[in-house]
Input
Amino acid sequence: MSISRAIAEQMERSSWIRRMFEIGIQLRKERGPENVFDYTLGNPDVEPPKAVIEALRRVVAENRPHSHGYMPNAGFPEVRAAVARRLAGRTGVPFTADDIIMTTGAAGAINTVLKSILDPGDEVIVLNPYFPEYRFYIENHGGRVVPVETGDRFQPDVARIAAAITPRTKAIILNSPNNPTGAIYCADVLRELNAIIREPMLAICDEPYRPIIFDGVRLPETQSLIERSVLAWSWSKAMAIAGERIGYLAIPPRLTEAEALRNACTFANRILGYINAPAIWQWVVAQALDATVDVSHYEAKRNRLCDALTEMGYDAPRPRGSYYVFPKTPLPDDVAFIRLLQAEGILAVPGAGFGRGGYMRLSITIPEEEMERSLPGFERAMRKCGNAGARTLTGSPGTCRTLS
Output
């Protein structure tokens, strides 16, 4: 039996992440795990907040009737009502339980809405650099990816986006705080986007990193600023429960097609094989909706890594949010520089894997002690490039004129 051509091609395009994983296995065998420093994965390195674990214990101990069985495909009504109340209070949009579909994380939410809106050949705009899984999500449902370059400090370039919109454009994916850049999209830019996103186009707002923000930044509410938007949410990062796969899709009632879209997404949630979001975790998050990890832990590591790299001569501005630092590589060929880091036992993902060569993504979920021990390797790799590789430091990604 042979695998499909489409899957074979997708596996090849995703080879950077797979290749780094395989290289990591080999390096650990050769040098020992203590001599390999893995900056590739955004896997939480802290435990869930106490409130989350306590809620989990309560839910399991209560063992309410049918707590492990099927429920409506959109999720438990009581849970959806709790989510809707909190989201309405935060955004000012009058969400109700009917507007919420519980999903297997934000990835499940995105696939559910794409399945519901795309016909073969329909287009979805992604902002470059972008999370590479978006391409696969879009192609899963017959869509065509349309990358559009971002502007200064990785902010959406509204003029470029407007020029990329065609009669086949069905959606744009907005990811703020952004993976891989850590940029936060400004309120004024979101307002400009609102002016060009018109029916049948939707903004799919992928916001799992919303709680992971630094420097006291106040994050704009995309649901308040972009009328034709849906929200894909996950508690993976907020609660450090990435393996539990729990999130939701919020469809605002102001959409003219809100009812039809809700019905389609509920149906898609079932036929994609998710059936419903994990039952126990629906009840858990409902009891601990605002529980969030201590973000200062990540902010301190961001500061340490960016400051250390900058001292060495890297162009490594501090991101405003997310798990990632996205510095320029001292060599224009980011893949060549990644190989220099590998020689030092450091695993990083080249920016080419996200559609933007000349950069690299470093995850600040690496344990602090490992980060410290890796720093001399970064310095040695920089020295190998020579002074000609150093670049001028630019503004921090995600900074903007206004944030409210």
Notes: The chain is about 40% helix and 10% strand. The chain has two domains: 5-47+294-387, 50-287.
